[in-house]
User: What shape does this take?
Amino acid sequence: MSMNRFLAATDGTRDGDHAVRMGQALAQQADGEFARLAVETSAPNWEPGLEWWKEPASPGGTATRLRGLPGIEIVRYAESWGADLVVLGRHDHTPEHPLQLGPTSDTVIRRRAGISLFVPPRTVTVKRALIALDGSLRGLGVVAPAVQFLNLTRAQTNAVCVLPGASVSTDTWRDVRHERASVLIDRLQLQAGPCELLVRWGDPVPEILRAIQETGADLLILGVRRGGLRGDLGSGYVGRELLKSAPCAVLTVPI
Assistant: This one.
């Protein structure tokens, strides 16, 4: 099963416009359909979910504007149109602005059933990817939905599994989470070649950030849980902190 429908949401800012360009490029690469969506929140007498402007399909895709709450309308449109991937902009990380995802991205992450790509302006192509794993059965669910995207981009891929405790180096060491991850990664068939599993110990957030730097990844693939309270980005502490601090694009996969 291939990826065929790509939806990019824009708010008219530089980050939003870059998301549109990225979505268009991916759709062209997949020889698929592309749609551009803008959600108007300040128009007078608006009704949520009201479609008020639409361009016919063209080589650049269909452009649609809706009125309502952006995060809700993006997910609603993506589901009704059957989007395989939703692309949104992501602010560049700076010491002054560490929070890279706002309320719209928060809502999309918590509500969307499919994968979403959050891309900063510096990311033009995806060449190297890193899959974050914790070795749990639920956490391993991030891998299969990401394969289509990895094969589309032909990104060289590594996976990192962060285990609790201190580093060990012994021939008799065994951990069921590592064994699960190792078996799954060994079975992956990626067009770019084998995926190497990196094992780290300790706090997942700094270890995953370190692995991003070491591998030169321009994409982090992260499992997230749907639902939860506003502001609870991703899957608890680890997901929330990585979504804030990862210095690259992030592909979120509901698990």
Notes: The first helix runs from residue 14 to 30.
